[in-house]
Write a structure and sequence with these properties.
By secondary structure, the chain is α+β, with helices and mostly antiparallel strands. Helix content is 28%, strand content 33%. Helix 2 runs antiparallel to helix 3 and helix 4 crosses helix 6.
C-alpha cells in the first residue's frame, strides 16, 4: 500500500499487491451532543500471479470541517479489460471519486455528488475506449461508501459488494449487476465505462457502535462462497486481521482451483471514539 497526505489533510491509500500492517483509525464527526464514533479500517489486496492487478481502492479522510460536511469516503473498484487494461478503469474511478468528492457543491446531497462523479467518470472512460480502437476497452465495477455522522451512503455499480455486520448478522447491502444465466453470472450488465447511460444504485442507513462494513471484490466473495466468506470474517479479530484473512483465504482457494481473479477487501469497524 502507498499512503499520501494532501495539503488539505486528505489521506489517500491506493492499492497494490500486499496488505497493511495494522488497523487505521479515523474519527467520525457526529451531531453535537452525540457520543463520538471512530472507524477502524483494515485493507488487503492480492493480484493473481502473473497478471496485472486490476483491483484498486482507497479512502479519503479530510480535515475536521470537511468531515463534518461530507464525511469519510471509501471506494473499491474492480477493473475488467483485455490484457490487464481494466486497471485503468478501476484506478480512474477511485481516484476521481476520492479527489473530487470534497469539491462538489454544498447544495448537493451525498447521493447527488456520488452520482454526478460516477457519471462523469463513466463519460470519460467511454470516450477513452472509443478513442482506442485497437483494444476491447475497459470497464469497472465500483462501490463507494460514505460515512457521515451516524449515517452511511452507498453508490454502487457492478459486482463489487458491500456488507454490513450488525450483532453478528450479515446483510448484503448491494445488488450484483450481472446477467441471471448461470453461464453469464460473472458478466456485467452495468459497469462504469460500459455504456453512455449509467444507472447507479444508492443505499443508505444508520450507523451504530459495533457495526462493521465489508467492501469486497468478487475475487473474495465469489471465490470463497457465502458460507466460507462469513466464517472467515467471524473468526478474525479486528478490521485488519479480517481483511488479511479474507484475501489470504481467497488466494488459497484460487491457488487450488487455478482461479484468475484479483482479491481485495476493505473492512470498517465502528467503535466509540472515547
Amino acid at each position: 500500500m502507498t499512503t499520501a497526505a494532501n495539503n488539505d489533510g486528505t489521506v489517500i491509500m491506493s492499492s497494490h499487491a500486499g496488505a497493511a500492517n495494522a488497523d487505521f483509525r479515523v474519527g467520525l464527526a457526529v451531531a453535537s451532543g452525540a457520543a463520538p464514533l471512530a472507524m477502524m479500517l483494515g485493507h488487503a489486496t492480492r493480484a493473481v500471479r502473473g497478471k496485472v492487478h486490476e483491483d484498486f481502492y482507497g479512502v479519503a479522510v479530510p480535515g475536521n470541517t470537511a468531515t463534518e460536511k461530507k464525511g469519510v469516503v471509501v471506494v473499491l473498484a474492480d477493473g475488467i479489460g483485455a490484457h490487464g487494461k481494466g486497471r485503468m478503469a478501476a484506478e480512474v474511478t477511485v481516484r476521481s471519486l476520492l479527489s473530487d468528492y470534497y469539491a462538489t457543491s454544498p447544495s448537493w446531497s451525498i447521493a447527488q455528488a456520488l452520482e454526478k462523479l460516477m457519471c462523469a467518470t463513466n463519460d470519460w472512460i467511454v470516450a477513452h475506449n472509443r478513442n482506442q480502437p485497437d483494444n476491447d476497452g475497459s470497464v469497472a465495477a465500483a462501490s463507494a461508501l460514505v460515512l457521515h455522522g451516524r449515517q452511511y451512503f452507498i453508490a454502487h455499480v457492478g459486482n463489487t459488494r458491500v456488507y454490513r455486520v450488525r450483532d453478528s448478522v450479515f446483510e448484503k447491502l448491494t445488488n450484483d449487476h450481472t446477467w441471471p444465466r448461470r453461464d453469464m453470472r460473472n458478466v456485467l450488465k452495468r459497469a462504469i465505462g460500459l455504456d453512455t447511460y449509467l444507472v447507479v444504485d444508492f443505499v443508505e442507513g444508520d450507523i451504530r457502535e459495533g457495526d462493521s462494513f465489508i467492501i469486497a471484490s468478487d475475487g473474495v466473495w465469489d471465490t470463497l462462497g457465502e458460507r466460507r466468506f462469513r466464517a472467515v470474517y467471524a473468526q478474525s479479530d479486528g478490521s485488519q486481521a479480517a481483511a488479511d484473512a479474507l484475501v489470504n483465504s481467497a488466494d488459497e482457494v484460487q491457488e487450488t482451483y487455478l482461479g484468475r481473479n484479483d482479491a481485495s477487501a476493505v473492512v470498517l469497524s465502528i467503535e466509540s471514539a472515547g
